Structure formats: C-alpha cells, structure tokens
C-alpha cells in the first residue's frame, strides 16, 4: 500500500514563531504596565476629587459664616441709621435745613 502526503514547500520556522511569541509577550507586558499606570493615576484623581469635595464643604461652611456676619453687620448698620435719623433734628420746611443749623444771611 502506498500512502502519499503533501508536504508544503516551505514549512513554518520555529524561529519565526518564537519571535512572534516574544513580541506578543512584550506587548502584554507593555499593556500590563499601562494598566498599572492608569490604576495609579486613577487613584491620584480619586484622592484629588476627595480633597476637592472636602474643600467645597469647607468653603460652603465659610460662606455661610460670612453671610451670617454680613447679615449681622447689615442689621447693625440699619440700627445705627435709625439712631441717626432719631438724633437728627427735623428740617425747617421753608429752607429745608435742620432748625439748629439755620444761618442768617446778610446782604451788602
């Protein structure tokens, strides 16, 4: 019995397969390195975001305190204005000047 097999003219070279394997492994290592770098960067960004959130809360609190201070000062100003109005004599209707500041005009 005769068995005939076809053998291709060029057989794959193990050296080429070895090169491809080395290149594939190199790409895998680079990808793993990139993943680690991205994970580290992600952690940095999350820490920065947490800090920004804390800063925002501190600013909100400071803003509320400032608004309360402004409101208190505005009330004090309004109270002082009312005192000034009460202490200022009523203006003279004819001259529209306060009664105690009326001056005598002299003519030549």
UniProtKB/TrEMBL annotation:
Species for this entry: Yersinia pekkanenii
Keyword Coiled coil among UniProt keywords: yes
UniProt KW keywords: Coiled coil
Keyword Coiled coil: yes
Biased composition (Basic and acidic residues): 99-108
Protein name: Uncharacterized protein
Sections of the chain in a coiled coil: 35-83
Residue numbers spanned by region Disordered: 88-108
